[in-house]
Structure formats: structure tokens, C-alpha cells
Design brief:
The protein has about 80 residues and is mostly helical. The protein has three helices and no strands. It has one domain.
């Protein structure tokens, strides 16, 4: 039970971090799609929450946040 609580809290923190980055970039770009990378999210998550995030997981959180915001996902290079 404690593990599922911690997993849920981690998920919520990372989704909030992804939404925060996308929202701030969207507002600063005159409401165009934000060009936030997985590395940006990983750095923000570590700085804000001390969560180590690998690039693949960061990309999944960014894609989920973009879909939740009604934006298209950006194909991986």
C-alpha cells in the first residue's frame, strides 16, 4: 500500500511538472506549441523534486501532458 501511494505521488509530481513546463513555454511563445524536451523535464524534476528521471520516461510524461492539454505529440527523432 505504501509503495502504491509513493508511486501515485511520484506520478502526480511528474505530471504537474510536465504541465508546468508546457504551460510556461506556451504562454511565453504567444500560445504556440511548446518546444520542451525530455531533458528539460528531467532537469526540472530533479531540481524541483529530487526525482531522477531517464529520458524515455520523461518523454512519456511529456507526451501524456501534451495529450491531456489537447496538443499533438511530437514524434521522437
Amino acid at each position: 500500500m505504501l509503495a502504491s501511494l509513493k508511486a501515485r505521488q511520484r506520478h502526480q509530481k511528474l505530471m504537474r511538472a510536465a504541465h508546468h513546463l508546457l504551460r510556461d513555454a506556451w504562454l511565453s511563445l504567444d500560445r504556440q506549441q511548446a518546444d520542451i524536451t525530455a531533458a528539460d523535464l528531467a532537469a526540472y524534476a530533479f531540481g524541483r523534486h529530487r526525482i531522477d528521471l531517464d529520458p524515455d520516461e520523461a518523454q512519456r510524461f511529456l507526451e501524456a501532458a501534451r495529450v491531456a492539454r489537447g496538443e499533438p505529440t511530437i514524434p521522437s527523432a
